[in-house]
Design goal:
By secondary structure, the protein is mainly α. The chain contains 18 helices and ten strands. The strands form five sheets. The protein has a two-stranded antiparallel ribbon with strand order 1-7. Helix 6 (140-164) runs antiparallel to helix 7 and helix 7 packs antiparallel against helix 8. The protein is globular and about 65 Å long. The chain starts with a helix and ends in a 6-residue tail after the last helix. Residues 1-32 have low confidence and may be disordered.
Length: 510
């Protein structure tokens, strides 16, 4: 990093008025959970979704504690595809240097655990209110609420398995996590991977069934297609031949539903015009304009978005947010000296004529200036967050469909799905015609690479690393462990069960 950049950071640090910037120890009294005593099932469901983007839902006041998108950053950093390139404020340092996952006393081990189990508790409260695990509520409205709660519970266990089980499913016999299926349960022993996966697939299968005919009022809610996407991810994580067939079927159903269209060439990257004033000391002093307003991955109404959060002024998010941590054009950490860019090695693998190359700028710390940006494009400009959160898009279904068919040896089907995506990333079909020649493991490897490129910064690279049993080697723009290879099941890439659970749950290892 240049001396001028360091001077800039020092000045920013002197004027950047953050409250509670120091990392907090674990709260002894976690924030209040949702309970069945709240006024209605509808309010419980709204509260359940709000937990996904509210700050402090991991039980701390840390500036990395802001719901699902906060753990998307954790996973992106662990995958190695996102490089932390500054630690002036320290958030994510112990994730990036891989010390937190192997130290069960740290907040990063605790916050995802606390968050996902809080989501499970809230989902269990709704399930209990509507009759329990084996119920089918009578009214359609209750069925839809019940199904959404089941989907959230299954999806939460899915993420816990990815983050806390090195082998994901493995043989199924390894004891991994406490299994809570009622809000009245506490201090349960660790269940086996098979028992956890049985709940994941059962919950999500029932959600798919009960959400038939559900017409949601906002993309902030889970509908049948989203539940199918969740279930496809779960089956892919276990990865038997029967599972891969289910992944192919589920993703094929979502694609053929016609409810969503692929992210277009224009939407995939901003056409940025950059003015570099003579007195500029770096990219933080440049002036930016964009000619295609449909780009930026910032609008839930985008036709490819299946599920997200519609962030508004009333939501109350500011510097403690995903946008604050990832976007140069938001008043927060990337602007102030903790930039996060694409791994230099992965960047080099993107061909120059692939529109996704324009998402990143090597001369600007490999930042995603052309992928994620607040529309005004004022450096450090967005203070109150109004750019939306992305949880799932249809492009993921095409990639999972390609992966499943490749795993099944259905190369032609896999190539067709992959080419459908690549047709929106290149202007000339000849540039991606090479995929027609791929088969077997070479095709699987190519789909894995395209998944890493396409979904960079969206929290999905870590999931792909684990299910592909990959090895990650960090490029030279990382601050830590440059050139060191880590396998998917390395201790440094999977969290330990946190100290708080070990101390407070006497039945954990029974």
């Amino acid at each position: 990093m240049t001396k001028s950049k360091l001077l800039y950071i020092a000045l920013a640090a002197a004027t950047f008025s953050f409250s509670s910037c120091k990392k907090d120890f674990l709260e002894k009294n976690p924030t209040e959970k949702l309970t069945p005593e709240q006024t209605s099932t509808e309010s419980l469901i709204r509260g359940l979704y709000a937990q996904m983007y509210q700050t402090g839902t991991g039980g701390t006041t840390g500036h990395d504690d802001f719901g699902q998108k906060g753990y998307d950053i954790y996973m992106d950093l662990l995958s190695g595809d996102v490089a932390l390139e500054g630690v002036n404020y320290g958030w994510y340092e112990t994730i990036a240097n891989l010390s937190a996952p192997i130290n069960f006393t740290t907040n990063p081990n605790y916050t995802p655990w606390r968050y996902y189990y809080a989501m499970i508790y809230s989902a269990n409260s709704i399930i209990d209110k509507l009759g329990g695990n084996d119920a089918v509520p009578e009214s359609k409205s209750d069925q839809y609420a019940y199904a959404q709660a089941k989907a959230v519970r299954g999806n939460s266990y899915f993420y816990l398995m990815n983050l806390y089980s090195p082998e994901l499913y493995g043989t199924g016999s390894q004891k991994v996590l406490p299994l809570l299926t009622s809000s009245s349960q506490i201090n349960q022993p660790k269940a086996t991977a098979q028992e956890i996966f049985d709940v994941i697939t059962s919950d999500l299968t029932q959600a798919v069934e009960l959400l038939q005919g559900y017409s949601r009022s906002t993309k902030g809610e889970i509908n049948q297609n989203v539940a199918k996407g969740m279930l496809a991810y779960a089956y892919a994580a276990r990865g038997t031949n029967a599972d891969w067939q289910k992944v192919a079927d589920l993703t094929g159903q979502v694609i053929s539903s016609g409810a969503f269209s692929l992210t277009t060439y224009s939407q995939a990257a901003g056409n940025l015009t950059i003015e570099k004033p003579a007195n500029a000391t770096g990219y933080w002093d440049w002036n930016y304009k964009v000619s295609n307003s449909d780009a930026g991955f910032n609008n839930i109404e985008t036709a490819s978005w299946m599920w997200g959060a519609d962030i508004q002024v009333s939501t109350g998010l500011d510097l403690v947010s995903w946008w604050g941590q990832m976007d140069l054009f938001t008043y927060s950490y990337t602007w102030a000296g903790d930039p996060k860019g694409i791994d230099a090695g992965l960047y080099d693998l993107i061909p120059a004529n692939d529109v996704r190359k324009k998402q990143f700028y090597a001369e600007a710390d490999y930042l995603p200036l052309g992928k994620f940006f607040a529309p005004d494009l004022v450096v450090g400009g967005q203070r109150t967050i109004t750019t939306d959160y992305l949880y799932m898009r249809i492009d993921e279904m095409y990639l999972l469909n390609a992966e499943a068919n490749a795993q099944l040896g259905q190369d032609a089907k896999a190539i067709a799905s992959l080419k459908a995506l690549l047709a929106q990333r290149y202007q000339n079909a000849a540039d991606y015609a090479y995929v027609n020649t791929l088969s077997g493991q070479d095709l699987i490897n190519e789909i894995y690479l395209q998944t890493r490129i396409e979904l960079w910064g969206e929290g999905k690279s870590y999931l792909a690393l684990k299910r592909n049993k990959g090895t990650v080697t960090r490029g030279d723009n990382h601050l830590f462990h440059v050139g060191t290879p880590y396998k998917y099941n390395a201790g440094e890439l999977t969290f330990e069960i946190p100290q708080a659970e070990v101390i407070n749950n006497p039945n954990l290892n029974k």
